[in-house]
């Protein structure tokens, strides 16, 4: 059976690649404004393709191979705003497969260049809502396979083992003062990370809560709030602009987002996300992406919750990717000015919270229960 032989060889190649890679670092960052609360960044930028999505891409390829969806010579198609496509292009090249990324035309040129560097091709569409449909059509036309990260992210990841990000975090925290984090903060692009962490914490019996930080122009927060009220999703969703925080936020709640795995959500204004990014950049001495800034605002929010409850403990969040891919946008004064952000006020709010414990500006949030305080 030639294809079974090819699949076995493909899986061995992916496993050998994994065996050559070290785990990612867990970096502490002191918050002067919140004594007794320890904060850590899980640095996913150190993967071979530079982001958290490297884990997802590996899982998606293994899932597709084990399901018999990929064959020798198959064209792999993905709907992605950038980082997932970079990582999937890496694994496609490893297996000798053509790769096409379907993405919004607004995707950063640095990410497009990174995809092409890995041997992939980019197919740009004007409306972010159209990328899934365009991917399905393209895969059909070329006889390939649409990887569909937004559907399969949560089920492709083995949340019980296999060095998923949750297992890695808890293992690395084992020798810390607070070995079991009170909160883990992440954001949602597919929802796969929050599902993996929430499931793993429950499976292992850890009393760790998950907060998901959502940017502007994203449907996840509203979907989560409706789930808490047990309201059905509306049949017709109004189109929304693409998220300005690349890699996270979606115009619809994707199938991989599992509300039951999340204990709280907060909607983060984009200006605060970028201010959070700039603060982390200054404190760590390295550029990070905008989604890391969104996560950091979530960290400050749960630090407020813990302080109000009189609790010490640890918060872990994700450093999703490096800032080198955003030189034309988040790190460009001209781009910032064109967005109309009041960055002076946003920077002051983040510094005030992190350094002195001042309260953040009011944020829309939704909490399943208060037990995690």
How would you sum up this structure, described in words?
This protein has 373 residues and is α/β, with parallel strands linked by helices. It folds into two domains: 8-51 and 159-367, Rossmann fold (3-Layer(aba) Sandwich), CATH 3.40.50; 54-154, Rossmann fold. It contains 13 helices and eleven strands. It has helices spanning 2-19, 53-66, 83-95, 109-117, 131-142, 149-156, 165-172, 192-204, 220-228, 270-284, 290-308, 333-339, 343-356, and strands at 26-29, 37-43, 76-79, 99-104, 121-125, 145-146, 183-187, 209-215, 264-268, 313-319, 365-367. The strands form two sheets. Strands 1-2-10-7-8-9-11 form a seven-stranded mixed β-sheet, sandwiched between helices. A four-stranded parallel β-sheet has the order 5-4-3-6, sandwiched between helices. Helix 3 (83-95) links the parallel strand 3 and strand 4. 52% of the residues are buried.
SSE arrangement:
Blueprint: H1 2-19, E1 26-29, E2 37-43, H2 53-66, E3 76-79, H3 83-95, E4 99-104, H4 109-117, E5 121-125, H5 131-142, E6 145-146, H6 149-156, H7 165-172, E7 183-187, H8 192-204, E8 209-215, H9 220-228, E9 264-268, H10 270-284, H11 290-308, E10 313-319, H12 333-339, H13 343-356, E11 365-367
Parallel strand pairs: 2-10, 3-4, 3-6, 4-5, 7-8, 7-10, 8-9
Antiparallel strand pairs: 1-2, 9-11
Please give a quick description of this structure.
This protein has 373 residues and is α/β, with parallel strands linked by helices. It contains 13 helices and eleven strands.
């Amino acid at each position: 059976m030639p294809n079974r032989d090819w699949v076995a060889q493909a899986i061995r190649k992916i496993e050998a690649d994994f065996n050559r890679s070290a785990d990612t670092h867990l970096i502490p960052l002191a918050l002067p404004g919140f004594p007794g609360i320890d904060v850590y960044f899980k640095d996913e930028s150190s993967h071979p393709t530079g982001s958290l999505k490297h884990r997802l891409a590996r899982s998606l390829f293994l899932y597709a191979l084990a399901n018999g969806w990929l064959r020798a010579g198959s064209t792999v198609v993905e709907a992605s705003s950038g980082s997932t496509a970079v990582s999937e292009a890496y694994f496609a090249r490893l297996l000798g497969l053509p790769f096409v990324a379907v993405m919004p035309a607004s995707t950063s040129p640095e990410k497009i260049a990174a995809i092409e560097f890995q041997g992939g091709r980019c197919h740009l569409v004007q409306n972010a809502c159209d990328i899934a449909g365009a991917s399905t059509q393209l895969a059909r036309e070329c006889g390939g396979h649409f990887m569909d990260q937004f559907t399969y992210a949560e089920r492709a990841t083995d949340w019980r083992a296999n060095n998923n990000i949750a297992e890695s975090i808890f293992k690395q925290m084992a020798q810390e003062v607070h070995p079991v984090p009170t909160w883990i903060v992440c954001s949602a692009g597919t929802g796969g990370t929050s599902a993996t962490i929430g499931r793993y914490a429950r499976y292992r019996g850890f009393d760790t809560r998950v907060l998901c930080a959502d940017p502007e122009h994203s449907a996840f927060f509203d979907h989560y709030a409706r789930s808490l009220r047990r309201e059905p999703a509306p049949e017709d969703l109004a189109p929304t602009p693409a998220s300005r925080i690349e890699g996270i936020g979606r115009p619809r709640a994707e199938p991989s987002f599992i509300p039951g795995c999340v204990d709280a959500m907060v909607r983060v204004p984009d200006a605060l996300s970028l201010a959070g990014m700039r603060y982390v950049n200054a404190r760590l001495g390295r550029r990070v992406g905008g989604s890391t800034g969104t996560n950091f605002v979530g960290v400050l929010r749960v630090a407020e919750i813990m302080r109000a409850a009189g609790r010490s403990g640890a918060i872990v969040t994700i450093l999703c990717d490096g800032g080198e891919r955003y030189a034309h946008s988040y790190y460009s004064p001209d781009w910032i000015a064109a967005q109309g952000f009041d960055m002076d006020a946003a920077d002051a709010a983040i510094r005030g919270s992190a350094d002195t414990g001042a309260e953040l500006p009011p944020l829309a949030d939704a909490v399943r229960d208060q037990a995690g305080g």
